[in-house]
Amino acid sequence: MAASPQSFSNHTRFDPPFHFFILPVFAITLIASVVHLFRRPGLHSAWFVVVMLAALAAIFKIRLNALKVQDRVIRLEERLRFASLLDPALRPRIPEFAESQLIALRFASDAELPALAARALNEKLSAADIKKAIQQWRPDYWRV
After folding, report:
1. Any bridge partners for residue 108, and if so which?
2. DSSP state of 21
3. What are the backbone dihedrals phi and psi of residue 106, each rounded to the nearest 5 degrees, phi first?
4. 88 within 8 A of 106, measured Cβ to Cβ
5. Any idea what DSSP says for residue 41?
């Protein structure tokens, strides 16, 4: 859990092992391999740069794939939540929500969700605009 209540200003999260260890180690190693290639050109040095680029690409793909799965779960949860909280007239419009809108609306409390969801559809609000419009923040401490 967080030390202070979650809000728009502090809802962004860092994953310390990824952001402060894995990513810097691979980035520094890539830089060092490029420097080594320029100081000692050769097939081995060039191949090491290629391997480091592949490793960095793999690290990002692994991270982004996990986030995509998380987004899909959020989308499903929010569509189920919308089906129970939205007015019957608005329920057929649930498929019109963009993924980013669904993900942003998860922070809205149950009480303010119907009005904010209608506004998001009618005014085509961006995720940032939706988050800024939330009055009663519903925290999500599990997102990485």
Report:
1. 137
2. I
3. -65, -20
4. no
5. -
Tell me how far CA of residue 18 lies from CA of 15, 27, 100, 136, in angstroms. 5, 12, 23, 31
Beta-ladder partners of 137:
108
Give the separation between CA 53 and CA 33, rounded to whole angstroms.
10
Whole-model pTM: value is 0.72
Q: What is residue 89's DSSP assignment?
A: T
- Catalogue the long-range contacts made by 12-16 (C-beta closer than 8 Å, 24 or more residues apart): 13/143, 13/144, 15/144
Q: What is the pLDDT of residues 24-78, one digit of tens each?
A: 999 999 999 999 999 999 999 999 999 999 999 999 999 999 989 988 998 999 9
Helices 43-85 + 113-123 axis angle, to 10: 120
Question: What six digits make up the tokens of 74?
Answer: 């959020």
Supply the DSSP symbol for 94.
G
DSSP alpha helices (H): ranges in 23-97? 23-39, 43-85
DSSP 22: I
3-state secondary structure of 135: coil
Cα–Cα dist 64/61, whole Å: 5
